Amino acid sequence: MSETPENLKYAETHEWAKLEDGNVVRVGITDFAQSELGDIVFIGLPDVGRVVKAGEQLAVVESVKTASDLFSPVSGIVAEVNEAVTDEPELVNDGAYQIWLFCIKADNPAELEQLMDADAYRTLIEE
Amino acid sequence: MVTVTSSKQTPLYDLHLQLGAKMTTFAGYQMPVQYKSGIIHEHLHCRSQAGFFDISHMGQCRVSGEHAAEALEKLTPGGIVDLKPGAQKYTVLSNAEGGVIDDIIVTRNASGLSLIVNAGCKDKDFAYLRSQLPADCLFEALSDLALFALQGPGAAAVMAKFAAEAGRLKFMQACAADIAGSVCHISRSGYSGEDGFEISLPQADAERIARLLLAEDGVEPIGLGARDTLRLEAGLCLYGHELNETITPIEAGLQWIFKKGHRDFPGAEKILAQRQNGAERVRVGLLVDGRIPVREGCAIVHQDKQIGYVTSGSFSPSLSRPVAMALLDRRFAEPGAGLTALVRNSAIPVTVTSLPFVPHRYLRR
């Protein structure tokens, strides 16, 4: 299993989030999540422009064996989605921290403070 | 007082962990879902080379006595009396309402009739058989045996190396054979759609023999995840999905298990009427448009009216697309019929297709 990057924030529902310029929050799933899911065969992404609240279900990742919902870590508007994973969802298995799934233009980036840092997330997944 | 119910382990539990398995609880047993390379790789490996499966969680028992075959035949629509020594038969235990108590494999061997039953049904099955079989039949639960499957186009060469007589078996034949000093019962059967074998052996020998088989070129361990996608592609029923106490064997498409003229089994009236007239609902295959898997429980609709539901659905590694099996109103079950599956908020186009999705490659003659 790969390292848990220090520069990201982590949700209990196993998304990672990265705050970028202009209050844009980039979101993917953690390496633990991709490992638990196994071979990913479909990723359903939200429509660009959709308005979301923090904690709202926004996307779905399906592996051979199961479907798993993804939640928005912040409130805002969907600014961009990674179309590459529509055709090649298995990219996420190969590099969960390299492959982002969607970006949210956050209303209030301070919401990210509610998420875990790398240490806390490592503790969560080691339980 | 706290009651701890811990799940059981097969004799290969430690080996699974050493092989990097991701474990899950299935039917009360700690079982490998997948190993390091993942379900898709394991699945394709079994289709192209050989896969080793630990299926020791399944139930094994023996029914013996002079009238054992007659007695067992009264519990199933399939023919047991006519089974020749060394032959085996897939059939079901039917209930009085025409549903299925379990699907089972019966083998006639030197010591009687050996049965393999589903792990999740074995307590129920064993209690049922004990209660139904007459006093002159001996019922024995064979709880000290392990069970392996070796499946795939490379399985026969591996099997022949360890037990030449097993390598000469045809599909649904069985023999006793020695593998490296262990007394095994080997049959040419399995549940992947591929040529292959199932090997019943003493638990005490299980890990040693498993390691021998896994050391052969081309043999890789396969978990329950790929076991499920393999049997789905092969269009085979899984108890609790395509079969249960309320689905008849005719609805499940198991007409081929019936013994001609046999009318003395539980639920015969309903089941034989369906056999003659057709059932209102039937099991079909569904090819799914797009990439979204259509899973168990999804409604199948035609012009906004539900006409059935998905019994199993997943991604087919061989076809590289989602496939499913469903129980459908027979009026909509013709191959080629275009229907809709409801997945979350999406309407997914699906097409009825005949089964299996991937042709069987059994060695029949």
TrEMBL record, chain A:
Post-translational modification N6-lipoyllysine, affected residues: 65
Cofactor note: Binds 1 lipoyl cofactor covalently.
SUPFAM superfamilies, per database record: Single hybrid motif
Keywords for this protein: Lipoyl
Domain (Lipoyl-binding) ranges: 24-105
Cofactor: (R)-lipoate
Cited InterPro entries: 2-oxoA_DH_lipoyl-BS (IPR003016), Biotin_lipoyl (IPR000089), GCV_H (IPR002930), GCV_H/Fam206 (IPR033753), GCV_H_sub (IPR017453), Single_hybrid_motif (IPR011053)
Domain of life: Bacteria
PROSITE patterns, A to Z: BIOTINYL_LIPOYL, LIPOYL
Record family assignment: Belongs to the GcvH family.
Subunit record text: The glycine cleavage system is composed of four proteins: P, T, L and H.
PANTHER family documented for this protein: GLYCINE CLEAVAGE SYSTEM H PROTEIN (PTHR11715), GLYCINE CLEAVAGE SYSTEM H PROTEIN-RELATED (PTHR11715:SF3)
Biological role stated in the UniProt entry: The glycine cleavage system catalyzes the degradation of glycine. The H protein shuttles the methylamine group of glycine from the P protein to the T protein.
Protein name in UniProt: Glycine cleavage system H protein
Gene: gcvH
TrEMBL record, chain B:
Pfam families assigned to the protein according to its UniProt record, in alphabetical order: GCV_T, GCV_T_C
Family: Belongs to the GcvT family.
Domain of life of the source: Bacteria
NCBIfam families: gcvT, PRK00389.1, PRK13579.1
Gene designation per UniProt: gcvT
Gene3D superfamilies, per database record: Aminomethyltransferase beta-barrel domains, Aminomethyltransferase fragment, Probable tRNA modification gtpase trme, domain 1
Designated name of the protein: aminomethyltransferase
Enzyme class: transferase
All residue ranges annotated as the Aminomethyltransferase C-terminal domain in the record: 281-358
Domain GCVT N-terminal: 12-260
Organism annotation: Methylomonas rosea
Keyword annotations of the record: Aminotransferase, Transferase
Annotated InterPro entries: GcvT (IPR006223), GcvT/YgfZ/DmdA (IPR028896), GcvT/YgfZ_C (IPR029043), GcvT_C (IPR013977), GCVT_N (IPR006222), TrmE/GcvT-like (IPR027266)
